[in-house]
Amino acid sequence: MLARLKEEIRCVMERDPAARNAFEVLTCYPGLHALLMHRINHWLWRHGLRWPARFLSTIARWLTGIEIHPGARIGRRFFIDHGMGVVIGETAEIGDDCTLYHGVTLGGTSWEKGKRHPTLEDNVVVGAGAKILGPIRVGVGSRIGSNAVVVKDVPPGATMVGIPARRATPRDPERAKQRAAVAERIGFDAYGATQGMADPIANAINALLDHIHVTDRRLQELCAAVRELGGKLPEADIPGFDPCNFPDLNGSSAQPPEVKPDERPTDR
């Protein structure tokens, strides 16, 4: 028992840089308090003492702000950071080395008996405010983004974001270099423009850059074919894009024209 307690404390200190020592973790971390009380409640639940288990879990919720049903199965080195608002349902199963942040819900989508809550395999991290709903399985090493709503199985190692959650597409290094080259040639800072934008806008701009790249390549092939046939084509440079010509794009608005004193309207 003491060895397990040391393991849980060491787990917190490894994952939270704010943790200074074991005594602070043991006395000041509600996530650890909720987990330790759940270990006791789960033992009572498995041995048929259902009401005491539920009552003590209610006390734990009052003290920590974390609601864990005593029937939930939780593995080793489980860490709840901050913890306020975390809800873990009765048939939820959590593997080893998982991390949950505040506001996470492992909930059900049915009133029927039986398995109705999610299963988290080992080494899963769930961001603040995320909701994982239903008897689904989240694969080993997966990451759930903050405020995501997951209602389907998650493959191992995947990163899920959005509502409803979708798998974040891995970035293609070659295509990223290609887009950067096109953007630099036309004088457009794609990364600066899309860094704070929503995904659909960023995807649309990236699609435009891909289209420009393909069009340029076809035009080069066409020009090369014309030259082989003896035609002469003048060389042309693509003009750059100067954001200074567009005050609104620089973050400053155009100033209204100055009104001379003798042109100002008078009250009548």
The total count of helices amounts to 7
Q: Mean of the pLDDT scores?
A: 79
| Main sheet characteristics | 6 strands, mixed
CATH superfamily of the largest domain: Hexapeptide repeat proteins
The CATH architecture of the largest domain: 3 Solenoid
Approximate shape = elongated
For the termini, the CA-CA separation is 89 Å
User: In percent, how helical is the residue content?
Assistant: 25-40%
**The CATH top-level class label of the largest domain:** Mainly Beta
Pairing-aware structural class of the strands and helices?
alpha/beta
CATH topology of the largest domain: UDP N-Acetylglucosamine Acyltransferase, domain 1
Rounded to an integer in angstroms, the radius of gyration calculated over CA atoms is 29 Å
Whole-number count of domains: 2
Task: Please give the oligomerization state of what you see.
Answer: single chain
Give me the count of strands.
15
Strand order of the largest sheet: 3-6-9-12-14-15
The parts where pLDDT drops under 50 for at least 5 residues are 189-198, 249-254
Q: What is the H/E string?
A: HHHHEEEEEEEEEEEEEEEHHH
Beta content comes to 5-15%
